Amino acid sequence: MQNFGSNNDLDEKGHVMTDQPKIKVKFEPKPKPSTCPICTVEYYQQFFDIEQRDVYMRIRCSLLSWKPEFYQCVGKNPDLWGPLWISTTIIFILFAGGNLSRFLLEEDKRHFKYEYNYMYVAVLIVYAMAFIIPIILGVIMKYILKSELGVFEIVCMYGYSLSVYMFVLVLCIIPYNEAQWFFLMCGLANSTIFLLVNLWDFMKKNKQTTLIAVPIISFNLALILCFKFYFFRLIYAVDD
Amino acid sequence: MEFEVQENQANNSIQGVINLQPQVNPVQAQHQEIPIKQTDLQVSSTLEESVAVTLLRDLRQIGVKLRCVLVPTMSTNNARELRNWDLWGPLVFCLMLALTLSMSGNNDDGPGIFATIFVLIWVGSFVVTLNAQLLGGKVSFFQSVCVLGYCVFPINLGALFTLFFSFFYLKMFLVIGCFLWSTYSAVGFMKLLIPEQKRILALYPVILFYLFLSWFALIV
Fold first, then answer.
1. Inter-chain residue contact A116 with B199, CB threshold 8 Å
2. Run of H or E including B125
3. Residue B196 with chain A: CB contacts under 8 Å
4. Quick check: B208 and A114 CB within 8 A?
5. Mind telling me which residue stretches traverse the membrane in this protein (chain B) (predicted)?
6. Residues of chain A that touch chain B, judged by Cβ-Cβ distance less than 8 Å
C-alpha cells in the first residue's frame, strides 16, 4: 500500500520526504484528428484495394444483370476504381463516337464541323449519373429509409451498372435510327434490371422502400434519352 | 571578449575597458584559410551568368531527360536521371501541343481547344498519378507527373506533322504511331512501380489519357 504525501519523515538535510511515486511520462505526439476525414487521400485508399481479376468479375456480374450476385462479388469491399474509369471511358466514347456518327452521315465531308461541346456535356451528364445521383440516393436510403447499405456501396453499384453502356454506345455509332434505339433500349433494360435486382432485398421491406424504384428507373430513362437526342441525333439535313 | 585592465596603483582600484568585439589577431588572419564551399561558388556564378547560358542549360537538361524517357531502355542512368523531376519540360510540351492544336483548327474554336488541352493534360496527369498512388504504387507524385508530361512529346510531333499533311489516312497512321510510342514509354516507366495484380488497373488510365490527346491531334 502506498501512501502519497503522508509520510512526514525528514531526510538528512532536513527536507520532508514525500513519498511521491515517480510517474513515468512518455510523450507521444498524438496524431491530430483531421476535421474532415473524408477529405484526405488516405480515406479513399480503402476503395482502391482491388485487383484486376476483381474488376473483371464485377463487370461480368453487371453484364449478366438478372443474377443478383453483385454483393457476393463485392463482399465488404466496394471500390471506386470501377465507377471512375468506366464513366471516363463512356465520356470518351460519347465525345469520339457521337461526332463520328454525325461524320458518317454527313454528305459533304469537307465541311464537317466538329462539336467540342460534346465533351463538356458528356462530362456533366456522366459524372452526375455515376456519382452525384447515387450519393443522393445512398444518403436518402441510409439515413431516411434505414438501409444497411452504405453510401459508397450504392456508388459502386451505380458505377458498375453503367458498364453495359461502354459496349452499347460503341454500337450506336452505326448511323441508323432503329439500330440506335434498339441498342439503347437493351442498355437501359440491362442497367435498370441490374440495379433493381440487387436492391430487391431492400425494396421488398415496405411500401416506402419500393418507391425507390421510381427515381432509379426515371434517371436511367433520362440518361438514354440524353444519349439519343444529344449525342447520337441523326440530322439528315445539313444545318448551318 | 577581451578586457584591458589597468591597475591604478594610486588608489588601489582596477579599472578597465571591456571590449565585447572579438579581435582577430592580424597575423593569424593573413594565414587563415576560410574554406569556400562549392555551392557558394555555383550560386554566385549562376546569378552572374547571362540569360542565354541559363536557358541553354535548362534546355539541355530537358533534352537529356527527354532522351531518357523516350528511348525506353532501363539502364540505371535513366532511373537516376528521372528521379530529378522537373515540371518545365511538361509545361513546354503542354503549351506547344495546345498552341499547335488551337492554331490548326477553326479560328472560333481556337481558345476553347487551347483551354481544353491545357486542362486535360494537367488534370489528367494529376488524376492518373493519384490513381496509381491509391492503388498502392510506390510512385512519387511529381516524378510521375513529370514522366507523363515528357511522354506527351510524341503526340506533339504528331500534331505538328498533321499540320503539314492533309491526306487523312496518312495523318491517322502518324497519330496512331505517336500514340503507341507515348503509351509504350509511359507504360514502361509506370509498370515497374505497381504490383503485378494491379498493373492493368494502373495502366489503363494512362492509355486512356494518351488516347484522348491523340484523338484531339487527329480530329483538329
1. no
2. helix B110-134
3. none
4. no
5. 87-106, 112-135, 147-167, 173-194, 201-219
6. 41, 44-45, 47-53, 55, 81, 84-85, 88-89, 92, 95-96, 99, 113-114, 116, 119
Name every residue whose Cβ is closer than 8 Å to that of residue A179 and which is 6 or more positions away in sequence. Answer: A171, A172
Query: Which pLDDT tens digit goes with each residue over A118-168?
Result: 999 999 999 999 999 999 999 998 888 888 888 899 999 999 999 999 999
- What is the distance between the alpha carbons of residues B148 and B139, in angstroms, rounded to a whole number? 12
Contact B198 A52 (CB under 8 A): yes
Overall size of chain A counted in residues: 240
Residue A200: other Cβ atoms inside 10 A: 12
- Say which DSSP state A229 is in: I
pLDDT digits (tens, 9 = 90+) for A80-121: 999 999 999 999 999 999 999 888 888 777 777 888 889 999
What are the cell numbers at A58?
Answer: 464485377
Determine contact, residues A61/A70, Cβ cutoff 8 Å: yes
For B217, what's the count of Cα atoms within 13 Å in the CB-facing half-sphere?
Answer: 31
C-alpha cell recorded at residue B60: 539541355
Compute the distance between CA of residue A214 and CA of residue A137 in angstroms, rounded to an integer. Answer: 11
User: Longest Cα pair distance anywhere in chain B, in angstroms?
Assistant: 112
Delimit the domains of chain A by residue range: 79-239
Cβ–Cβ gap A96/B106 under 8 Å: no
Q: What is the mean pLDDT of chain B?
A: 79
In whole angstroms, give the CA distance from residue B89 to residue B146. 8
DSSP per-residue codes, B90-110: HHHHHHHHHHHHHHHS-TTTH
Contact B156, B175 (CB under 8 A): no
Can you give the length of chain B in residues?
A: 220
| Residues 80-109, chain B, touching A (beta carbon < 8 A) | 105-106, 109
Q: Which three cell numbers mark A162?
A: 453503367
- Residues of chain B found within 8 Å of residue A39, distances taken between Cβ atoms: none
CA distance A237 to A92: 26
Using a CB-CB distance cutoff of 8 angstroms, which residues of chain B are in contact with residue A85?
A: 131, 204-205, 208
* Residues with Cβ within 8 Å of residue B70, at least 6 apart in sequence: B150, B151, B153, B154, B181, B185
* C-alpha cell belonging to residue A157: 453499384
Inter-chain touch B134–A45, beta carbons under 8 Å: yes
Judged by a CB distance cut-off of 8 A, whether residue B197 touches chain A is yes
